[in-house]
Amino acid sequence: MKLIAFAALICSGICFGQVKADSSISVDNISYKDNIYKPNYKKLIVPTVLIGYGVVSLTSDALKDLNRSTKYEIGEHQPKHIKLDNYTQYLPAVMVYGYNLAGIKGKHNLKDRTIIYGTSQLISAAFVLPLKHMVKEERPDGSNNLSFPSGHTAAAFSSAHFLFREYKDENLWLAISGYPVAVFTGVYRTLNDKHWVGDVVAGAGFGILSTELAYWLFPVINKMFNKKESKNFTFIYPVLESKNFGAGLVLNF
């Protein structure tokens, strides 16, 4: 319950902060000068706080006690382990395409939104995968030393924030519909005894940060795809595996 309540506060902070920070943009009139692509450092407050919490939890005795007490409470109730979190981490991104197929247009067309999402997953993997091997935090179940940060949670919040960014000016309720899925993913990473609370909170921060950076970088990356009379080809795509996630980059010169 502690984790669910904290995650709910995270979602509210993200939603209200983002809606206030961005101006309304017409779907048919997007240019690289629009605020959606401009760095707004207020948007970094929430992910910075979340990542900071996760980092402090690695050394803080109080937060380590919270990790252990949460693990103890989970063990007392012994909830049934499910593996839905392996799939729900990407569900908000699928929802973006689903809403579009249903005729609800977001900020970008199919190609542009795919570039943005692929970039966000690449950035997320660049944060998460090296950190796992550098920090070497043992998982609650003792299966390995790749607990911090939670890659599933990073992917889930990256996807949820992608959905939010695409639809927040069109339909706020649709825009925030991915966050409960992301929270579910993070909560079940702890219920499945795969992550500590601090791992999940940091993963949420890295996920949100990755999507923000992807939008800021989009004008530069999109120009690589639209060079006239150029045979160069660049493609970023997510890589999904049973126990890992990441992204691939294809360059053709």
Structure commentary:
With 253 residues, the chain is mostly helical. Helices cover 61% and strands 6% of the residues. The protein has helices at residues 2-21, 45-57, 61-77, 85-88, 91-101, 110-135, 151-167, 172-175, 178-191, 197-225; strands at residues 233-240, 245-252. The protein has a two-stranded antiparallel ribbon with strand order 1-2. Strand 1 (233-240) and strand 2 form a beta hairpin. Helix 1 (2-21) packs antiparallel against helix 9 and helix 6 crosses helix 10. The longest helix has 29 residues, at 197-225. It is globular. Residues 1-29 have low confidence and may be disordered.
Helix-strand sequence:
HHHHHHHHHHEE
Taking pLDDT < 50 over at least 5 consecutive residues as the criterion, the unreliable ranges are 1-29
Indicate the percent of residues in helices.
55-70%
Class by alpha and beta content: mainly alpha
Kindly state the number of beta strands: 2
Overall mean confidence score, pLDDT: 81
Distance between the termini: 52 Å
Multimeric organization: single chain
Largest sheet descriptor = 2 strands, antiparallel
Please compute the radius of gyration using only Cα atoms.
18 Å
Shape summary: globular
Strand order of the largest sheet: 1-2
| Tally of contiguous helical segments | 10
Tell me the fraction of residues in β-strands, as a range.
5-15%
